[in-house]
Design a protein that fits this description.
Shape: globular
Largest sheet: 2 strands, antiparallel
Number of strands: 2
Number of helices: 13
Distance between the termini: 40 Å
Length: 298
């Protein structure tokens, strides 16, 4: 009897399938296949053009005419500096702003204005951030072209991304968690710190990793603020002073190699390195989000 009911249900589903539904499903599959094929084509093309340039010397040395070497070690170090400085400052500010807007602020004009400003910041072209950072941080604050100037500029760019992602993550936490914790007599901050933030951690991590991805891929704003120097510090104190010095990231060097220098082999080699970094970032996002999801379920 059960098998008969199942067969009848399956037959009814097949009979109710409209030709328009079949057409839409086909179109969806075609779009999905096109997206995957486009991504695969870009990756294969970039790798075919640049994989020959990537070797140990390319990753660990700097470009020198006297030594006859071509390398991006200095650009990798500059990129890491900017990522660390930007995220160390932007993450707590962005998460704190999201907690305030979602848990403390009462709905009203102030919250509406703040959210509108956040959304507006997220839509401003990066070149405008670069112009502002160059004039305000570089000239007004007398920081010049430096990694610190570039980092402060990128903080303004990624703050809306971190804030909005954290807000959305906090909104996914059921209200029963809040009510249950408060009903047990816990304070609001204790409830936020021990229940809400851990529960929303997958979304927060996703926002942070997306911000890192934007930092890695940014070039327009950094051309105005960080400069393009690519040498490695020669001593330990050089690494300590590095944030106050000019430094070009991987994307800036890719731009310069392809335009000013006309060295497309190096440009595609840097593109391969950037693709690997983006792949690692996406894998790290999935692993960390899955790990926190497991802990939340437990």
């Amino acid at each position: 009897m059960h098998n008969t009911d199942t067969n009848i249900g399956t037959s009814l589903q097949k009979s109710k399938r409209h030709p328009g539904d079949v057409a839409w499903n086909t179109l969806i599959y075609i779009c999905a296949a096109f997206s995957v094929a486009l991504l695969a084509t870009i990756i294969l093309y970039v790798c075919a053009k640049g994989i020959r340039a990537v070797n140990w010397s390319f990753l660990t040395s700097v470009t020198s005419v006297l030594r006859g070497t071509v390398g991006i070690a200095g650009n990798i170090v500059n990129t890491l500096y900017i990522i660390v400085i930007t995220m160390v400052i932007a993450t707590p500010i962005g998460v704190g702003a999201a907690v305030y807007l979602n848990e403390y602020a009462k709905p009203g004009k102030l919250v509406t204005v703040i959210e509108f400003a956040t959304e507006t910041l997220a839509g401003i072209p990066s070149i405008i951030f670069g112009l502002f950072g160059s004039l305000f941080f570089g000239v007004t604050l007398n920081m010049g072209y430096s990694l610190l100037t570039g980092s402060f500029t990128l903080i303004l760019m990624v703050l809306p991304l971190i804030t909005r992602n954290t807000q959305e993550a906090l909104k996914t936490v059921p209200d029963s968690y809040r009510n249950g914790a408060i009903g047990l007599g816990t304070g609001k901050w204790y409830m936020i710190r021990t229940i809400l933030l851990p529960s929303a951690m997958p979304g927060i991590i996703t926002g942070a990793i997306l911000a890192i991805g934007r930092i890695v891929g940014e070039s327009a704003a950094l051309l105005f603020t960080a400069g393009s120097a690519k040498l490695l510090p020669k001593a330990l104190d050089g690494y300590l002073k590095k944030p106050m010095q000019s430094g070009g990231t991987l994307t800036i060097q890719l731009y310069l190699s392809a335009t000013s220098e006309g060295d497309f082999t190096t440009a595609f080699g840097i593109a391969v390195v950037l693709l690997v970094i983006v792949l690692i970032i996406n894998l790290a996002t999935k692993r960390l989000a899955a790990k926190f999801d497991v802990h939340r379920i437990d």
